[in-house]
Every structure is written in C-alpha cells, then in structure tokens.
Design goal:
This protein is mainly beta. It has 2 domains: about 150 residues, Jelly Rolls (Sandwich), CATH 2.60.120.10; about 170 residues, Jelly Rolls, CATH 2.60.120.10. About 15% of the residues lie in helices and about 35% in strands. It is built from 6 helices and 25 strands. Strands 2, 12, 13, 15, 16, 17, 19, 22 and 24 form a 9-stranded mixed sheet that branches.
C-alpha cells in the first residue's frame, strides 16, 4: 500500500519554485548585484540569479537577468508585476499590447521601467561586446503564495489594457502629478536615465534633499528616487519591510538600528548595491562622495495603491516626527554618535560637511562631543 503523502505544513510555494529554477540564490543584508554570480536560467534563456535581502518582507524579491553580448531573453508573460532597473549595458525591450501591436524602447545604465501586468515582452542586448545586466524587482513571491499554481501565473492569457499606458508611455515621457513635497508623482512606464531625471525639493526629509515618486504601468509596485546634496545626509526614519534601496549615483553608507545604544548595522554603497531595511528598523542615508548621491527605492504598495494599511501609514507619516506619531527622527533628536561618525567618514574621504546649517557642529569640531 502506497505511503500517504505528507500533509503540507508551513509551506512556501515561492521558495519551492525558486529551488526548482536551478540558479544561484544570494541572501544578505546588502548585496552588490553587479558582482553576483549568474548561471544559465532556462526560463529566460540567459544567465540569471535571485537575490533575497534580509528585509525583503513577504511581497517582493529581485531577479538578476544577465544577457550575453548580442543575446536576448526568451519571450516572457506572467501574472505578477516587475520594476526593472538597468545595472549595466545597453539594449531594448519589446512589449506586445492587448491589440497585438508591438512597442519597442531602448534602455541603458540607470534606466527604470515597468512591464505592464501580463503583457508579452522580450529583452535584447544591443552590444556585441558587453553583457547587459538587469535587476528586476517582482511581486512573484506574493502571487505564487496566494495562488500556488505556476500555470495560472505563467500561462494565463488574460490581458490588462488599462495597465499598458498611452502611445508615449515607453518613450521616456510622462505626466507630473502634483501633490505636496515628498508626495509629488511622475506617471510613466519608462525613465531613460535616473541620474538625469529632475527631482523636486523635499525639505522636511532634511538637508536640502529632493525626491520624486513614480507611478509605473499603473501598478501596485512603488518606486521613488531621492537625492542628497554633497556633504549631507537624510533624517533617520523607519517603515515596514520590503523597501529595496538601490544606489544610483555617488557613494556613501546607511546605518540601521533598532536600539541606537547598540552598534549600528552599516551598509556601504555605490552603484549596483541594494539593501532592504527590516521591518520597523530605523535607518539613515549618508552621502560621502564629492557629488550628489541618488538612490532608488522599490517596494510593494505605493501612493496610488498602498495595498496595506501599514503602507498607507508609511506614506502619510514618512516626514512626520516620531514624537508626533510619524516615522522620522529629527536632527535635534538623533544620537550624537551619528553626526560624529559622519564627520569622521568625511575626513577619510577628504570631504567637507555641509550640515552646519542644520546641526550645530561646534561641539563636534572642538572635541566636546
């Protein structure tokens, strides 16, 4: 008599799918995606890998698509959302809309785009000499764990015309949707170069910084970009898991903590590095480079579709003092260790602080602190 099948218990269909793909899986607090080893991925017809960050949460994870010179991916179609950030290389992507028409757009390093939900698409490497490496942040994990049926996810013919955008959605154009500082939005499907994209000032997040929220392919995936001027840093803040933070320009570091009397976790970053603060962990970003630093954050649930009540509270309180029920630590309330570390790090890089307008630096410079 055949042995009864073991009942499923604490089952994770997404992780089971990952194990079956046969490609490298890396997991860490922060990961340099450009350096991750990739191996042949039959599904894409290219090399690939999967990155799981410590703070990725329950909704999203990262695929690395590594396309050989002159190569291309196998055509794809799937019932999960993805936001693509180009790590290196030049190429193009074709997207087939519900009416059978094909739209093509060209991308390069630091391009950002989203594939409309369940649209057919294909990536191409335009270079005959260099690899093209894409980081694609997807909601596959939540979709597979909801439906636990791969045919439903990957072989579903239902189309979503309302997600495809307009004729110009993949041309690099977009629509500015004014709200208020820190909540202004840019709606599009494609941003050609994040390093050149115009941001809007957001003084409440600190030290002359600027920001833009993106609405991509009318999706539930969130993304935003922030910039820190030379010699400055953002205010400390916290939120739920799944905000994947990618360095776009400059160099610097981020500190993370639950209890600021304990040693900080530190992630040093430059282009290619991504990290995700775990749930409720305070974190703070510091620019130590001679140029403005920009970072891109991708998460599940955005300003248009927050998806969860917790994410709604994040976007409402992200620049509100924790003493007033928000998520932000004002400069005057932060631990003195934070600014002292920043000044020491700047000195190592031969850079000067521009924080005197926001923090009294005299006690740090004369050794009182």
């Amino acid at each position: 008599m055949a042995k009864a099948e073991e009942p499923k218990f604490l089952h994770d269909p997404y992780l089971e799918w990952v194990a079956g793909e046969g490609i490298p899986v890396v997991e860490d607090f922060g990961i340099d995606l450009i350096k991750v080893e990739t191996k042949p991925w039959a599904r894409y017809g290219t090399n690939g890998a999967i990155a799981h960050l410590k703070g990725r949460g329950d909704f999203i994870s990262i695929f690395i698509i590594d396309i050989a010179p002159g190569g291309k991916c196998e055509p794809q179609q799937h019932l999960y959302e993805e936001v693509v950030y180009v790590l290196e290389g030049h190429g193009s992507t074709t997207v087939e809309t519900h009416d059978g028409r094909t739209h093509s757009f060209e991308w390069g390093p630091k391009s950002l785009f989203a594939l409309p939900l369940n649209a057919k698409y294909q990536h191409f490497n335009a270079s005959g000499q260099e690899n093209a490496k894409l980081s694609t942040t997807t909601s596959l994990c939540v979709m597979l764990n909801l439906f636990h049926n791969t045919d439903f996810i990957f072989n579903n013919d239902y189309r979503f015309p309302e997600r495809e955008g307009t004729e110009t959605s993949f041309s690099g154009e977009g629509e500015f949707i004014p709200k208020r500082p820190g909540r202004h939005m840019w709606e599009t499907n494609f941003v050609p170069d994040l390093s050149k994209f115009e941001l809007r000032k957001w003084s409440k997040r600190g030290a002359g910084g600027s920001n833009m929220m993106f609405v991509l392919a009318d999706g539930s995936m969130h993304s935003h970009m922030s910039e820190m001027p030379v010699g400055t840093y953002k205010k400390g803040h916290r939120h739920g898991a799944d905000f994947h933070v990618f360095c776009v320009m400059g160099e610097g570091y981020s500190l993370l903590w639950y209890d600021d009397t304990e040693p900080y976790e530190r992630v040093d970053w430059q282009h290619g590095v991504v990290f995700a603060p775990p749930d409720g962990m305070f974190h703070q970003h510091f620019n130590t480079s001679p140029d403005p630093a920009r970072y891109l954050a991708i998460a599940f649930g955005g300003l248009r579709y927050p998806m969860t009540e917790a994410k709604r509270r994040v976007f409402m309180g992200m620049d509100v003092n924790v003493r007033d029920g928000g998520a932000q630590i004002e400069y005057e309330d932060q631990s003195p260790r934070i600014h002292k570390m920043f000044l020491e790090d700047l000195a190592k890089h031969g850079a000067e602080s521009k924080m005197a307008e926001f923090i009294d630096e005299k006690p740090y410079l004369d050794g009182t602190i």
